[in-house]
Design goal:
There is one protein chain. The chain is α+β, with helices and mostly antiparallel strands. It has one domain. Helices cover about 25% and strands about 35% of the residues. The chain has helices at about 10-35, 60-75, 95-105, 105-115; strands at about 40-45, 80-85, 85-95, 130, 135-140, 145-150, 155-165, 170-185, 190-200, 205, 205-210, 210-215. Strands 1, 2, 3, 4, 5, 6, 7 and 12 form an eight-stranded mixed sheet that branches. A two-stranded antiparallel sheet has the order 8-9. Strands 10-11 form a two-stranded antiparallel ribbon. A hairpin with a 5-residue loop joins β6 and β7. The radius of gyration is 21 Å and the shape is elongated. The N and C termini lie far apart (about 45 Å).
């Protein structure tokens, strides 16, 4: 009787919650795969390692341009994504890096106010916080973070991702499926969602094919 007293549709709510769980699980697996053992790492400020990152080595527009330049000069080259007749790379940053970019980099604020594209409906632009120098910037909470960087091993940091074309591969073994099962002669019901899939970062000759890790200090908001 307690289950029958609920004022909402359990089947509908269960499906919504499990669908969200599945999407977040797949997201987490993709980020973990791409962030594993990066062959190319770019650091904020004057840092050359996580141990030399200092307070103030924020994520900046200059760092975005630096990554794009390295991508163009890399061997093999990191190929951009083509949208119409324009070329773009993608940068995914942590929310704390986004906050630092908006707080400490006046060039970013001015560029988004005065020069950002408007009305473009391509999926790559959906949810983007802005574009700088041909790099579309997205924010995601699954970006890896740390609290043990710097010479004191006490500084907070984050590892953003700079991505080019074919940075990884995703394959389905079985598409997500919805399962319901009754218990106790139909008096109770359970819900489940499942899938079979795999995700791998693209690597060629021990070098990441189309990605770089971008590690900076972050203000822990």
């Amino acid at each position: 009787m307690s289950e029958r007293r609920t004022a909402y549709n359990q089947r509908v709510i269960a499906k919504e919650l499990l669908t969200t769980w599945m999407a977040e699980t797949i997201d987490a697996d993709i980020f973990a795969a791409v962030d594993t053992s990066p062959s190319t790492v770019v650091f904020g400020g004057a840092a050359t390692s996580t141990a030399t990152i200092a307070v103030g080595d924020y994520f900046t527009t200059a760092l975005i341009t630096k990554c794009k330049t390295k991508a163009k000069k890399a061997v093999p080259k990191l190929w951009p994504i083509k949208i119409g007749n324009k070329e773009y790379y993608v940068m995914i940053i942590h929310p704390d890096q986004e906050s630092d970019l908006k707080t400490f980099d006046a060039a970013w604020i001015q560029a988004q106010r005065e020069a950002n594209v408007r009305g473009d409906e391509n999926p790559l632009f959906e949810g983007a916080v802005g574009i700088w120098d041909g790099v579309i910037v997205h924010v995601h909470e699954d970006i890896a973070i740390s609290t043990t960087w710097g010479s004191s091993a006490l500084l907070t940091g984050a590892s953003a991702m700079f991505l080019a074309r074919q940075a990884g591969a995703f394959a389905w073994g079985e598409r997500p499926r919805w399962v319901e099962k009754e218990f106790d002669f139909g008096n109770k019901v359970g819900f489940a969602i499942g899938a079979i899939y795999g995700v791998k970062k693209a690597v060629f000759n021990a070098v990441d094919h189309a990605s770089m890790s971008v590690r900076t200090y972050r203000t822990n908001n």
